[in-house]
Amino acid sequence: MPESPLVQLKKILDTEASRGYDNRGIFGGLDKYATHWQKAAQKATIESDVIAEIVSWLKAYPALTIAGRTSEISEIQTRLDALVNAPAPQAAPAQPARPAPQKAPTVSKQKAQKPPEKQPAPQKKTTPKQKSERSISGKPDPLSQVAPRAPLPPMPDGLQLNSPMTILAGVGPKQSENLAKIGINSIYDALYTFPRRYIDYSALKPISQLRFGEEVTVIGTIQSVNLRPTRNPKHKILEAVLGDGTGTIRLSWFNQQWLKNSLKPQTQVQISGKVDQYLGRLVFNSPEWEPLEANALSTGRIVPVYGLTAGLSSKNMRKWMHNAVGYGASRVEDPLPAALRKRLKLLNTNDALVGLHFPDSQEELAQARRRIAFEELLLMQLGFQRQKADWQSQTGLALPSTDGWMETALATLPFSLTNAQSRVLKEIRNNISADKPMNRLVQGDVGSGKTAVAALAMAVAVQNGAQAALMAPTSILAEQHYSGIRKLIGKVPGIDWGDENQSAVRLLQGATPAKERREILAGLLDGSVKVLIGTHAVIQDTVEFTNLGLAVIDEQHRFGVGQRAALRSKGANPHLLVMTATPIPRSLALTVYGDLDVSVIDEMPPGRQPIQTRVVYPQERERCYQFIRSQVEKGRQAYIICPLVEDTGKVVAKAAVDEHKRLSSKVFPDLKLSLLHGRMKPSEKDAIMDEFRNGETQILVSTSVIEVGVDVPNSTIMLIEGSNRFGLAQLHQFRGRVGRGEHKSFCLLMTESTNGQPVTQEDVSERLKVMESTTDGFVLAEKDLEIRGPGDFMGTRQAGYQELHMAQLSDLAMIGSARDEANKLFKSDPNLEKPVHALLKARLAAFWQPGAGDIS
C-alpha cells in the first residue's frame, strides 16, 4: 500500500530539521515540492482545508528566518502527527468532479484613469500561518491582503504612484524611453498595464513523466553544456543536458551563446516551456529558465506576458512590473465601499491588481478579473444613470399630435406601416409629446423602415411649429434621405411645404453652392426652412435654427460624441432620435446604450424579396462571373466588393483598383464598370453613385465604402471578395445593398486563402455558414456576439467612457448585477455625496472622460 502523503511530508520535514533548516530537505526546496504534494494529497482524499493550509505553508517557507522555520516545522509536525493518528473518517457520498480549470484568459493591455492614492501601511512579514488564513478555503478571501509573491528590493525613497519608472532599480533613461513607447510613464501606468496573456507553468513534473506538447516546469541540475555550429558560421546553438534523478532531457537555445556563462555544469535550475520533439526524443527549445535560488517570475508559476517594444525583454519587464506592483498596488485607494465588496464577495483593489499581474492560481486570476470587470460595469451604469437624469431634468419643447391627425398623415403614405413601425412611432410620439427631451435609439435591420418612422416624427415637429434636422454620415446617404423624406411627408396636410423652387425641406452638404447655402441659412432663421437634411455641414457654426425641436442622427455610430452634441446644441434641448442599421443584441444595447430608451423595428415590410446567400470558392469564380453577366443581361445591376483599395503586397486579398482594371479588360470588356473607394473625393464618389443609380453603369466595383445607405433598387447581385475577412455585421450591411426592389436578389460570399493554400469547405468559418442560413440581422448580431465577442459592437457607440479592460459584455449576469447596484446607489445617493462614496465619485469622474455627458 503506498505511503500516505502526510507520512511522506513528515519524513521530509524530519530531514529538513536534521539539515539545519536549509530548505534542502527535498530536492528543489519545500516551496517547489508544494504543488507535487498537493496533487498527491488530493488523490488521497485528504480534506481540502488541510491541503490548502499545508500548501500555503510550504510555499511561504523560504521567506522565514531559521528561527521561524524551526518554530513552524515543530508546529506543523505536531499537526501532522495528529492527522496521521486520527481515526479514518466515514466515506462521504460521491461528489461530481469539479470542472477542469479553464485556460487563462487573454487580457489586453489597457489603461485606466488614476484614482486617489493612499499611503501604504508598514510592510509586515507574512508568516505561513497568516498566509494560510487567506487560502484555507482554497480560494482567496475577498477582503484579505495578498501576500507578496517574492521578496522586493528595499523601497526607493519618495516613491509615489506618479513617480517615474526610473525610480525602480534597473530602469535607466533609455529603458524609460522604451517603456514610454508602450504607455508606461509612471508606477501607476505600470499597475494598469495588464498582461496581454498568461502562460501556465505552475505544473511541476519529473523528467520521466514528461509528455510531448505539454507546458510544464522541470527542476534539475545542468549536466553538460556545449555550443553546436550551424550552417551559418555567425549563428550557433547552445545545447545543455538537464537531469533530475528520474531522467535527462536536452535543452537548446538558438544564437544565445552568452547563456554558456550562466548555465554551467552542476548549476541547479528550473526550466519552463513546451515539451517538443527532435529525432524521436523529447526536448525543450528556447525554454524560460531561472536559477533555483531565484525568486521565480518566469518559471514554475502562471507567468504574465506583457506587450513589448524594441529594447524591452520579457524578463526585465516582469521584474520591473513585479517591483512596481509590489510597491504601488497598496497605494491605490479602493473606490468601492467595503460593504458592497463584502456583499458581492469582491477582492479589494490591491489584491485585484496583484492577482492580475502575478496570480498564484487560475482561481485568483479569475477573481481579480471579476473585481476589475465589475468596477468597470458599475461605473458605466452609474454614468448612464447620471446622464439620463441630467437629460430628463431639462425642459424641452412639447410636440403633441392627435391620433386623428396622425391617421390623416399616414393616409398620405404610399404604403402601410408594419406593426413594428407603428409600435415604435407610438413610443416616439409619447416621448415628444412631453416637455422632457426625448433621448431614443431606434434599431432596425436594413430596409425595415426606420426612415419612414423618423420622417413622420419630423412631420409632427413641423406641425407644432418647430423645425427638424437630420444628419447623415455621407453625402450619398444625405441625398437619399432628402429625396425620400420629401416624398414621404410632402403631402402631409396642414403644413406649407413650399414648392420645388422654395421647398420647406432643404439639403445642406459641403458641396452646396454658396448662393443656395445663403438661402438655406436665411430660411432656417426666418422659419421658412422647416426640415434640414445634410451631412456634417448641418453642425457648422454658421448654421442656426430659429426653433429646432427634433434632431435625428442616422447611422449614429459614424459620428463622434462631439458631433452629436453639436447638433443637439443647435436648439434648446431638442428631442433626440438616433438610428442605426447595425443590429445590436438587446442585452448589449442595454449596456452600451444604457442612457437611451431603445426601440427595435424587428419586422420587415411586406413584398421585399428574400436575398439568397451562398458561400462560393475560388474555383467557382468563372461560374460567378457568368451568373453576374446573366443578371446584367436581364437589365439588372451588380456590386463586386473588395477588401482593399490597392494591392500593397503585404496582404493576399483582392484590391478594388486592380480588380476594376482586370474585370473591365478581361472579364466584362463589353459592359460598363465603375470604381468606388474611400480615397476618392466626395464629389467623385457622388458622381459615380449617380451614374450607377441612373443605370449608366452596370457593375460597381467597390471597397467597404458601399456599406451604408446606398439604395439602388435595380441592383440584384453582390459578389463579396475575401468575405472571410469581414465580420458578420459588416457582411450583413453589404448584403443589404441588394434586395431593395421587386426582383429576386443574390449575395455570393467568395472565400479567400490566407496562407496560399486552396480553400475547402472545411475552412469556411462559422460566421459565413450563419450568413447562408439567415437574413435576420438580429439573429446574426446574437451570433456575432457569441463568435467574436462584444468588441465590434463597442465601436458602435463612440461615447466618452474609458475602454473596458476586463468587462465582458457577454456576461449578462455581471451586467445585471452592476445595473442593480448602480440603481441602488443612484436612488440612495444620486450625487455620491456621502463620505463613503467619495472615492467612487472621483473614480466615476475619471472613468467618464470630458464630453461623455453629451449622450450618444
Summarize the helices and strands and which ones pair or pack.
Blueprint: H1 5-18, H2 30-43, H3 48-60, H4 66-85, H5 128-135, H6 173-181, H7 187-191, E1 197-200, E2 215-229, E3 236-243, E4 248-254, E5 268-278, E6 281-285, E7 288-291, E8 302-305, H8 314-328, H9 338-344, H10 349-357, H11 362-392, H12 403-411, H13 419-432, E9 439-444, H14 450-463, E10 467-471, H15 475-489, E11 505-508, H16 514-526, E12 531-534, E13 548-553, H17 561-568, E14 575-580, H18 586-592, E15 597-601, E16 611-616, H19 621-633, E17 637-641, H20 656-667, E18 673-676, H21 682-693, E19 699-702, E20 715-720, H22 728-735, E21 745-750, H23 766-773, H24 777-788, H25 791-794, H26 812-828, H27 838-847
Parallel strand pairs: 4-6, 9-14, 9-15, 10-12, 10-13, 11-12, 13-14, 16-21, 17-19, 17-20, 18-19, 20-21
Antiparallel strand pairs: 1-8, 2-3, 2-5, 3-4, 5-6, 5-7
Description:
- There is one protein chain.
- The chain is built from 27 helices and 21 strands.
- It is α/β, with parallel strands linked by helices and 856 residues long.
- A seven-stranded parallel β-sheet has the order 11-12-10-13-14-9-15, with helices on both faces. It has a six-stranded parallel β-sheet with strand order 16-21-20-17-19-18, sandwiched between helices.
- β13, α17 and β14 form a beta-alpha-beta unit.
- Mean pLDDT is 81; it is low at 88-113, 120-149, 794-799 and 851-856.
From the helix content, strand content and strand pairing, which structural class follows? alpha/beta
Shape: elongated
Low-confidence segments, given as residue ranges, are 88-113, 120-149, 794-799, 851-856
Query: What value does the Rg take, in angstroms?
Result: 34 Å
Biggest sheet architecture:
7 strands, parallel
How would you write the strand order of the largest sheet?
Answer: 11-12-10-13-14-9-15
Mean pLDDT, rounded to whole units? 81
Straight-line distance between termini: 70 Å
Give the percentage of residues in beta strands: 5-15%
Specify the number of helices: 27
